[in-house]
């Protein structure tokens, strides 16, 4: 379900991914009527939120700690250049290794609501039919340094994705 939300609705939906105490002052990116990525609201805290892209199937809003912005912004830039996922990962890996792209100095979390049939309920101001996930980035973390498995033992259990890489992160998807 693709929605064409107003700028205010994009802000309202995007900040729902943020921790409650960070919503009012989070920076919010979204999309103009012509579909251009843009800043919808300047922020005054440590959170950056991104509204759902109406051109993509499904629904997804995210909020992440500002220390992740260099990595996220570089990914958007490379996508805008038409790079594939593999090309983006190789370039960001090289840039992280060389120090050209800065990484978080301590664990940093991305919060996400997503789903093929998810949507922003304009009447209630809530997100419906979505899953919620925490993604805790810990650059270069390994199974040995975290004690986490490399796959979830159960559907809601945390696990480490991309161990030993610049974008290593803990995935936690709570059950509904």
Polypeptide structure, described:
This protein has 176 residues and is of the alpha+beta class. Helix content is 22%, strand content 28%. It has 4 helices and 10 strands, in the order αββββααββββαββ. The strands form 2 sheets. Strands 2-1-3-4-5-8-10-9 form an 8-stranded mixed sheet, covered by helices on one side. It has a two-stranded antiparallel sheet with strand order 6-7. The protein is globular, with a radius of gyration of 16 Å.
Quick rundown:
By secondary structure, the chain is α+β, with helices and mostly antiparallel strands.
C-alpha-based Rg, rounded = 16 Å
Total beta strands: 10
The gross shape turns out to be: globular
- Strand portion: 25-35%
Number of helices: 4
Distance between the termini: 20 Å
Taking the sheet with the most strands, its summary is: 8 strands, mixed
